[in-house]
């Protein structure tokens, strides 16, 4: 019995020893480190593997994959360089950042261009004065965006013999605008569009304003063709280089009637909206919005035709030289040079700077129509509102042109909050009044405390379309300019004047329209025009 107890004691000792020996044989735990991977910015792409543990001394391959529209640039953190994929040894915790950047689709345009097409899948930056020379055609696809650089006063110049084919569509207009960021755009950010042709002017080898070195325009070919432009917007353009030496939103010098320019909008320009220096080009559907100086400026013997034009004035945008809806000259002085400036306009609507009596506006806003220096333009079937003065003749030679019938003002309505007529340079107000009231209508706005809004509605004009009711930030992007129901402007257009039978005019004008002004029941600005481009992000198009 004693022997059995001893054996059991030894068995217990051996068992305990075995257990203790077995415990001493356990393996040590595996060592890991954390690999942190980050994409910067997060929308730029992805990094694999994702953040997580990695075995000690493991060689880990890291791959950066860019999202559409982005590209991988470099590694930062515990890995540097541009190799992709890249490997890292996990001998400690590691943090790796993959840096991505957006792929730039902006193509810079400088100097003199060769024949090429600008496609809508890219955007373009004009730097300095960019020329389309003789024999070269620049084609722009619908929906293309072109920026003008502010620092270099970028300007697109189509020289004589060059052509610009810019056929936008209602749904996909072509846009030329400021290169400044949304919210920072302003008038005069770039030089605008200059088109030069070989049609007649009344000057000898004139140089176009604002271009250096000087460029000559004009010639003897009234059928000259500088291209085709439709559904085109030009925003924040026009730069004054020196006094009386500036580019406009769109400057046309000697542009011939073989050129097509319809459905064109200029806005927030630093000088004039449209300026014609001679030439014979015809237009339909023009918009000048919040232009700094004159909206429709006619000089040097322009003899083309314009039907359907809209002017909307900002009450505080006006130039010290006096700003007008129409400004027309025959030449730079009062000399009797020919061909006379005889451009003919019909169906124009002007929403001037002052919507009601007493509205505060810039003192540099002056005339609905300012006729100067022997000009003889004709205006028909149009409605003018909101300028302090309705009509001015600034020289006696202007009076003589209209008394002789070279220029005609007929079947227009002047709705005026202040003075009706003015004169200067030997002209007299009585003659201005007599010529206008022989074939046109003048109406005074109701007093400030009377129902002036309903007064406009009676004509079919929407008082909400005056800029004076808004700020730069709040004017509607797509206001409705169609005539209100039962407005008196819906009928009364008259195309019986002999001007419309002239060989260079008879085929241009649509003589079937009944309405006075630019609009009937249809608003032709809808969809393609933009009346508040300040904050529009064109880079996302």
From TrEMBL:
Residues 38-103 form the Bacterial repeat domain. The keyword Signal applies. Coiled coil: none annotated. Residues 1-24 form the signal peptide. InterPro entries: Bacterial_rp_domain (IPR044060). Pfam families: Flg_new_2. It comes from the Bacteria. Keywords: Signal. This is Bacterial repeat domain-containing protein.
